[in-house]
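Trying the structure run again after the queue cleared.
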Amino acid sequence: MNERVAMQAANPRIDGRSIYLDHHATTPVDPRVLEVAIRMMVEEYGNANGVENIHGEHAARAVAEAKEQIARSVSAEPDDVHFTSGSTEAIQLAISHAIATHRSPLRVAMTRVEHKAVIDTVVKAERMGLVEKSWIAVDDKARLDWQSLERVLDEGVDLVCVMAANNEVGTIYPVQKIAHAAREQGAGVLVDATQAIGRMALDLDEGILDYVVLSAHKIYGPKGVGALISPGFDRSSIYGLQGAHHPTPNVAGIAAMGRACELMELEGAKESGRLAMLRDRLQERLIALVPDLTVNGDKASRLPHNLHFSAAGAPNEVVLSRLRGKLSISSGSACNAGAQEPSHVLRAMGLPDALLESCLRIGLGRSTTLGDVESAAILIGDAIHDVRMNFSGASHV
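Done. Tokens:
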């Protein structure tokens, strides 16, 4: 308790302002990105499909520039960038395209910790008789079980789905190594890079990734715009009626996403270094303030802005209620918010129930300061202390 009091005296930033540390769920729009979006809505407002006039020509040029900016961030070709409403639609389009261009049913292998957007799409396709799925196991740190991958590949796979980095515990995956192994067995590769873009290296130069999925709102761009990067993608070949007519491009969102990717490419490495130091500081303070705190995921190889931990004896929903209005963090993926069951990611890792029910996810961001980190540590420490005292008895204190 003495250390907590000392920290409060040194960092009196708990002043009613809610601190935002949920950047895995979404990021605020960077003012430099917002400037681009506003310009495209107010000044360069033409229809990019209507290039017979100068307004449409300017809009089309903005879309083309955004394709170049996004392609550079993953060493791809601009013509391979296809805009979507976000990662979920990009995933659905990629899997639909793979189904349409391979023998049926499509044999899909995916890790047990993939985003629900991948898992739900594959499961639905399987119910429709379009897919046969197989699972790739992970260990207790959410690291891929290489022997499990090899077994699945030996059995025969058409498409391997693997995220570049986990959206809950932050574990980073060896995408290039996985892709080469899949290629050797004749399998295609879908990489969900939603959380990873600008925070780790992604390279399509070798042509080993068939589909790469991105979303603007994870990198300080607007919600409602994303991209599928795929050398062989053709909307007209997928199931359904999509591709029969070119929709009107969301020029403002597309241009903003291009600028967001450009900024991540220019500043991502430096920003990641700063956030990793802040994350380590926060982890250090929480370990000092919270007895029996367990850090989840691979501490040696994780996203620089991620901290996922459990505090047995302090149910996360009760802790979050104590923090509401003071500090915004989460218990896991925003797509699972309100779910009654623990995260499928943590289940796949084999975490015991005491850790499952007390897990919390923190995502630091571009505007996060050392003061935010120090204040957050106090707020979280006090909340867990209070919950343990009132709900779990005094044995944890």
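The chain has two domains: 2-29+268-391, 31-265. Worth checking whether this holds up in the mutant runs.
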